[in-house]
User: What shape does this take?
Amino acid sequence: MNKDEILKRSVYTGTHLLEGNVAMAEGCIAAGCRFFAGYPITPQSEVPEHMAKRLPEVGGVFMQMEDEIASISAVVGATLTGKKAMSSTSGPGFALMQETLSWANLIEMPLVVANVQRVGPGSGVVSLPTHGDITQIKRGGNGEYEVIAIAPNSCQELFDLSIVAFNLAEIWRVPTFILSDAWLGHMREKVVIPEPEEIKKRIVPRPEYIPAENETEGRPQIYTTANKDFTEFNIPAFPPLGSKHFPYWWISLTHSQISGMITETPSVADNTNMTINYKISKNEAKISIVKRYQLDDAEIAIITYGTPSRSALEAVNECRKEGIKVGLLRLVTVWPIAETAIREVAEKVKQIIVPEMNLGQIAEQIERFAFHTDGQRIPVHRVSHTAILHTPKEIIDKIKEIIQ
Amino acid sequence: MVRTELKFAGYGGQGVITLALLTAKAALEEGKEVSQSQAYTAVARGGSVWAETVISDKEIDYPRAMDPDYMILLSIDAAKNHKKELKKKTGAFITDPSSLKKFKSKKKTHYQIPAAQIAIEQFKMPVVANVILFGAIVEITSIVSKESARRTIENTVPPKTLEMNLKALDEGFRYAEQLKLEISKEHAVNITA
Amino acid sequence: MSYSAPRGKENITPHPYGTNTQMHKLMGFPFTMFCKGCGYGSIAQAICRVFKEENLQEELFPFIVNIGCYSSMPTVLPGKTFMTLHGRGIAVATGVKMANPKLKPISIHGDGDLLSIGTNHFLHGARRNVDMIVILLNNNIYGMTGGQLAPTTPMGSKTSTTPYRYGEEPIDAVELAKVSGATYIARWNTSTIRDFMKSFKKALHHKGFSFIEIVSQCPTQFGHKNNLPKALDGFNFIKNNSIRINKAKDMSPEELKGKYIIGEHLDIDRPTLWDRKSQIIEKLKD
Assistant: This one.
């Protein structure tokens, strides 16, 4: 098979009625994913099932591993070897992956993990949706790290944003997450997939390692370096395992960002942690994607993400009909938290409502930025559920309650 | 048609999700926006299941049924649990008397389609009951044209069984058409009376 | 080769095989971080020799190193090394092999690593017959963390976590590999290094999941706690408790209790994981 043939096969062009999980799998394959390792867990089992069918068609490999720990480890191995690789799971499996994800963050692996969230804690309810894993995504593993997480709200977006997720992973060299939920994963909607040529333009390929540009004193420069103030970052391509330029000892311990070698020097370890964290958090404005809706003259802003944003959209439309000035800021990327956009909105509005399918994991973050320019705090109201998708009416009721 | 919401309920294995899927596919066939979702208990067969199809000409914001236009009930439990969700004045029930005998609605229009009975008596094949019911739903709700419904069946069923399924679909159309006529006559009688 | 601190390049006699190591290439001298009398140095040296004798293209035989005493072994290994988390080497190697089938990963494990935290991956790697080599460096104890009970610690030994010599039945890695479906299995000890080299060479050319266990002395932790304080004590303890496989055939299970049966245990052919995966990909091409 030549490249054109593979590209043609990898894009399922046309207008289809696709299940959320399948749309996501198709998006990932279109984005160039050629290795998938996973373990069956409801409600994401359609993802591995679809991958098992589709990946061999495009010359890729599907692996059903012995558990989620093995799955994510195999994904690290495949990513390191130069393939775009991913895994998908749900809450309990995601918890098992945390140790490896923490490590993947340390060694800056551009891999993708989809978390089709189900109600927890424990084994929870397998068929009910939640956004209970939002904090776990970046605070689940040992140590501190920043990740990119993207939250689609429709089957079409599950396709489109999967490509964006793979792109962000490559650009920022960081594990990137697709946040779906039990309900979105099992929903079927119209999905329009463009021609392969059109998809090709959207894809960011794995950057090629060029020895002349990326070597310091004969050693490959495999990690991101930053200037003293952590304002400029140099994110290098890394040599794949199996190439001559692969370093002789790529360690899983805290390393020097420059030499890549083991360190126990406090200042060097400090620098490593600062670099991998600030690489994402200080570039928040460049990374984060938000959608603004009817915000120009809004007095109340709804800030939300994922599936509740569709309820919120309906609520905004209904309220506008009644003349209530409500707008919506939808966080397409949940992490890093879109500080710039939230501050901008907070400055203009009087109150903020955050409908979430958890008890306020992002509302806590929003509270950090909910100030007017004069320093006056503005109230952040939560509309929380842990296993139920908000109805538009519920949000409308909350809006009417707070304007009184 | 701005927004039509269909809700299906029954128990696992009855074809609740199949029906929702067929209506969604048919809507897509006409280029409409569609959102189909479902919920089920952990039991694969015999547990309670409900599914929804929301069809609209415009983009669908909230993808769940907020105020269903049609409620398709296939079991006693489903009737108990979901009957009250049909609040719209113009709302209508569609039931299959072979699995839900005693169901009656005083205020709402009620279409009884004995799909399972027709499937056995006329086609000697219980599986086509879903297609008969689908035909009846299309006729009653007019969410899509008959032609689109036919194309949906052509694209869905195995080629071997296509002929029989198309016949079943036509039977669904025919039965529902007649039923509609009868009901509107009754309605007219009620008004004049 | 066991311990030579980098006192200055000129003072160190170049080790015959040390020049092949990455550390030598980089720093001009080889050094290890192993304790005095540890067997791991000689194992690393044997691996270096095989790489030199076979004239292997180093990037095609990447070492996957996990967490344990041997984690610093890459300083004296001849090829490219990727260090993973505790016990996850085989899972990572499976990903590596599937993403680039030209490579033959060599996963190096300790006894805690392979037989405790990562056993699941070991069983399934063998079951799938991933074309890779697994080397188990068995020193009968958790050395790096301070001498705690390992799944291979002989019954009744004293360790940091069994101060009253309370013991557990040790696990037999070779038997485990056999029932899991490994296609090449051998066990050696530090007194049979040349045999290990032969086995390692065989494994390099073997298509499938190769498993080689090598039992090593640990004077610092195991030896110190069990009256075998010197390198030679531990060395002899293992040597005296090892029985060649052809001899062991005629011995009763009672006689073999607590003994290491050394030798080549299995050498068969079976389609590998990649054989099966590539077949499907080929089939779907047209």
